[in-house]
Write a structure and sequence with these properties.
Blueprint (H helix, E strand, L loop, with lengths): L1 E9 L5 H18 L2 E7 L2 E8 L1 H13 L3 E11 L11 E4 L8 H21 L2 H8 L10 E12 L2 H7 L2 H21 L3 E5 L3 E7 L3 H21 L11 E16 L4 E6 L1 H12 L7 E4 H4 L8 E7 L8 E6 L10 H14 L4
Parallel strand pairs: 2-5, 9-11
Antiparallel strand pairs: 1-3, 1-4, 2-3, 6-8, 6-9, 7-8, 9-10, 11-13, 12-13
The structure holds flavin mononucleotide.
The site of flavin mononucleotide has 16 residues, from α1, β3 and α2.
Length: 352
């Protein structure tokens, strides 16, 4: 037998009648399926413990996961059990909001802090880890696996010079603009953000989504171009450029690190190559660079630009590299000029 505990939030305000309906349906189904447990509702939060035969429990949880009345479902624990804790209740539904019992107060506060912790952790945790938790798995038990992925690296140009020459609030604002654009472009194209690197990010895409990876790069460039065009030359945002490198390959994916610090991440040649291709954007006149590994997986873009044979730093093999030629993918300023322009801004913003 199995016991599963999860927490979720109401997708919208639910009336007493709707909560009663969930309770009644649960009792009916759970009596039929041999499941027992408790369901607490409080301040827009559900906290449920379900126990019973594994197959029946999995089927029930699959229905619960799809239920549009709640969202942000976060599995807190899955245990193999021999005895039930709530054998008397097919599903005891308790509305903590209504209870006047003083003993309920600490439980309310505990559930509240649990929901808050969940909300915070959700923003820090990789999507794969959250998905695993939602399905009742323990991500710490996962073994590394090989997967084909498209990898994207994006990095702000001359970020060291920007950080050195701008007041921290201005630099922070540029980072905010970049991350807002980059995160949005990745997510809208079905990618997953693997990590934020301080002045850039790494994202990945499942096999079959290579065109979306390239599309992400183009959208980042287009949106940054809009930002530059609408800012005047004395505004640092006018000088906000990012270089993007892409490639595909088999990567090793999963928990990497030690007991002290663990990361859910991707490693392998494709990851290193994408990072190197990203640095090539400093040398060529284009802001997006990818190699054959990606080109082979997509329909060749009409604006494809062959850039030639390059040996990225640290690699032994030469790679054919490409870009896509649009006005917003061209770098209109040299890296040296960009740097000196940024240094020039220092005087205008009158740093102490
Ligand atoms: C917070 C919450 C807890 C639920 N708990 C249960 C449950 O314990 N058992 C159950 O069968 N359905 C439960 N449901 C309802 C299921 O999501 C689903 O609507 C229901 O099982 C469908 O039943 P039907 O196939 O009889 O229509 C719950 C729904 C919510 C929102």
């Amino acid at each position: 037998m199995k016991r599963l505990t999860y927490i979720s939030t109401f997708a919208r305000p639910l009336s007493n009648k709707e909560i009663e309906e969930i309770g009644e349906r649960s009792v009916r189904n759970n009596t039929r399926d041999g499941l027992t447990g408790v369901l607490f509702c409080f301040n827009g939060i559900f906290y449920q413990i379900l126990e019973g035969p594994e197959d029946a429990l999995n089927r029930c949880y699959a229905r619960i996961l799809k239920d549009s009345r709640h969202k942000d479902i976060f599995c807190l624990e899955v245990e193999n059990i021999t005895n039930r804790q709530f054998g008397d209740w097919a599903m005891k539904t308790v509305r903590l909001d209504e209870s006047e019992d003083s003993l309920i107060r600490p439980i309310r506060s505990m559930l509240n802090s649990l929901a808050r912790t969940h909300y915070v952790l959700e923003r820090y945790s990789p999507r794969e880890v959250l998905r695993g938790l939602q399905n009742g798995e323990n991500p710490l038990d996962w073994r590394l696996k090989d997967n084909e992925r498209a990898i994207l690296f994006a990095d702000i140009f001359s970020s060291t010079t920007l950080a050195e020459n701008l007041p921290p609030a201005d630099f922070e604002r540029l980072l905010g603009i970049f991350y807002d654009i980059a995160n949005r472009s990745v997510v809208e194209n079905g990618g997953t953000i693997s990590k934020l690197t301080g002045d850039g990010l790494m994202a990945y895409y499942p096999r079959g989504r290579e065109a979306e990876a390239l599309n992400t790069a183009l959208e980042i460039c287009r949106r940054l171009d809009d930002v530059r065009s609408s800012a005047n030359e004395t505004d640092p945002a006018h000088w906000l450029y990012a270089g993007i490198g892409l490639c595909t390959g088999i990567v090793r994916e999963g928990n990497i690190g030690s007991d002290f610090k663990l990361d859910y991440t991707l490693i392998g040649d494709a990851v290193n190559s994408a990072a190197r291709l990203q640095s090539l954007t400093r040398k060529v006149d284009y802001l997006v660079v990818f190699d054959d590994s990606l080109l082979k997986k997509i329909e060749s873009p009409s604006a494809l630009r062959k850039l030639g044979l390059y040996q990225p730093k640290g690699k032994t093999e030469n790679l054919y590299v490409y870009s896509v030629d649009y006005p917003y993918t061209r770098r209109k300023i040299s890296v040296t000029e960009l740097k000196s322009t940024i240094v020039g801004l220092r005087k205008q913003v009158a740093l102490p």
